[in-house]
Amino acid sequence: MRLAIDAMGNDNGPYPILEGVRKYLARDKKSQIILVGHEDKIRPLLVETRLVDNDRVIIRHAPQVIEMEDKLSALREKRDSSIAKVVELVKTGEADAMVALGNTMAAVATTRMGLKHLEGVHRAGIAVPMPSVCGVCIVNDMGANINSKPKHLYTYGVMASSYSHYVLGVDNPRVGLLNVGEEEVKGSDILKDAFSLLKNAPINFIGNVEGGDIFNGKCDVVVCDGFVGNAVLKASEAVASTMGIILRNAIKSSWLSMLGAALAKPAFKQLKQAANYDQYGGAPLLGVNGVCIIGHGRSNSTAVMNALRVAHESVAHRLNEHIHEALCQTNFALNDN
Fold first, then answer.
1. Nearest to 221, CA basis, from 232, 233, 230, 209
2. In which domain, by residue range, is 9 found?
3. I need a labelling partner for 283 at 20 to 30 A (CA). Which of 42, 98, 123, 166 fits?
4. Distance between alpha carbon 173 and the CA centroid of its chain, in Å?
5. Does position 217 have pLDDT exceeding 70, yes or no?
6. Strands (E), 117-240
């Protein structure tokens, strides 16, 4: 399998990406990695990351970079950017999947324009894994679209259900629609119409759910528009960070607390692991005609390794083929409505 990655997308430069590639190749003995970016900045780091003699690592030069502060107009001005080259590799079939880090807006826009949507999809969604008492809950969409119509929410549910089942291995994923209450009559007209569509979808739709249900194990997939989803994501990250600070301050408040913390260290380690973004690596952009995994610009080497793993698994499990099969039924249902 050939996986392309934007080597210039990390906030800390190419090094964490190359180190993540090294870790990934140590586990996957067959895949090939295509590093896309400025060759003069990448090649010296091959020695440091022990990739210099690895014939499974290829560099594709891209002289330009879409920075975090760049606006969408930069996509037209920087046609030789690393993210544009990564998308082109997937489009031409030179790569089976891609990993994009850094500027999410640029990654989504470039991928949509380059790869187009799958048949039956009008809006792609970022499906982010969130920690749950039952493992992971996939929330789709978390920022690709801020104004979603009922049919878009419908396809988000179908696509995320396929991802949960075929890639994550969840049997008959429970899909909920994020709303202000569980009753079918709750919410805006858009949510009410989306409820009616999802109720007849070829998925295990359990109805409306509330924000807390993302984490309490009630469902495996939660559907929402990108505006709400992104607010949920950012708030969740802030809560996790804040609780960590409060907990550390409480532990340091007395010697008895520090003793208790030492005894509970294995439990704290397990908690940190469950809530750690690094183990998920990235979020698939579901609905584009190719496999695209989007990760944080601050991803460390472990997150990069896992983003590559998710990309590999999405291709290996033929995710888009399964989504297409489900959407054939979806289009029939939407036409009937």
1. 209
2. 1-115
3. 42
4. 18
5. yes
6. 125-132, 135-140, 174-178, 204-209, 221-223
Mean pLDDT in the chain? 90
CB 12 within 8 A of CB 38: no
The pTM of the full predicted model, rounded to 2 decimals, is 0.90
Q: How many CA atoms lie within 13 A of 150 on its CB side?
A: 19
**Coil, helix or strand at residue 246:** helix
Q: Which tokens hold the place of 208?
A: 């409306």
Same domain as 128, residue 103: no
Same domain, yes or no: 249 and 206? yes
Largest interatomic CA distance in the chain: 67
Count of structural domains, the chain: 2
The CATH number of the domain holding residue 3 is 3.40.718.10
Q: What is the DSSP letter of 285?
A: E
Return the higher-pLDDT residue of 164 and 184. 164
Q: Under 8 Å CB-to-CB from 45, ≥6 apart: which residues?
A: 14, 15, 18
